[in-house]
Amino acid sequence: MLSDRPYMRSGYPRETTSALTWILCATMAGAVLQFAFHQLGNDSVLRLLALSLVGIQDWQLWTLVSYALLHDGLLHLLVNGLMLYLLGREVAPLLGSARFLQFYLFAAALGAGAWLLLNVLGDGSGFLIGSSACVIATLIFFACVYPEREITFLVFFILPVTLKPKVFAWILVGLECAGLALCEVPGAAFPTSIAHSAHLGGALAAWLFYRFVYAAGGLDRVAPTIELPHWFRRRKADAVGPASPRPSQPEEPAPRDLRAEVDRILDKINAHGFGALTENEKRVLDDAKEMLSRR
Q: d(Cα 286, Cα 268) in Å, to the nearest integer?
């Protein structure tokens, strides 16, 4: 039955957040291992997964993304996890699970690259941990897609402030640039441990992904994975061919064929997002919903 698929029970199918769930679970697991080993006086997890210039020179290339699994304390973990969950619920359905995972890893890698570049110019010491670059990338991507949608957030978890995402994004980028110049560059006046360079790398990754993948239509150029059913091909041919008398009772597609086609479309949504569907595929979903409503 088509109604066995939860996506078909009401409205258009909604994107699952499996990639987001896996990312959050992996981040929590990394933090638990990090904190547990640290309590035992063993920092092997930190040395294995944290990003450092020395580690990259030793060909520990996995640390370009694995550093995002570790955090500097419980508050750091909770803030990043909460922000990623709230923003990811909006961004993940737009990209699909596979694309969202690619976006997350790209943001982590570009944030790592920006931090490493600054360390090459400096003394090359220290290490980088935390998913802040990926969280900021998700926020910037959200602002690119919904620049005018007003959002309300709590300053210091107390004072509510309402801003448009594009305004908040520009303020955030400005603050990060100021923090980079005043606190992180070699010889900074107010040195801190905050990796503003990685944050700016994540912001750049979000803009690049939006500009050259999402806005450029990269999500729409997805070839069907199987051949369309014969009844669907006839409908398409009729739409572009000469007009023919419309039958009083058009023949409905076989339920088995329709179910297979709907399953394929739903799998495509799960992998690439709702924006990857063609108009014909959306029409198939409408037809399937009408059949369910008549039962």
A: 16
Q: What is the pLDDT of residues 176-227, one digit of tens each?
A: 999 999 988 887 788 888 999 999 999 999 999 999 999 876 554 433 333 4
Phi, psi of 5 (to 5 degrees): -80, 120
Q: Which CATH architecture has domain 15-214?
A: Up-down Bundle (1.20)
Instruction: Report the distance separating Cα 84 and Cα 138, nearest Å.
Output: 7
* Choice between 141 and 270, residue whose per-residue pLDDT is larger: 141
Which pTM value belongs to this model? 0.69
Domain ranges in the chain are 15-214, 230-293
**22-33 confidence digits (pLDDT tens):** 999 999 999 999
With 0-12 / 13-18 / 19 or more C-beta atoms within 10 angstroms meaning exposed / middle / buried, residue 48 is: middle
Residue 23 near residue 4 (C-beta atoms within 8 A) = no
Closest CA to 94 of 21, 15, 22: 15
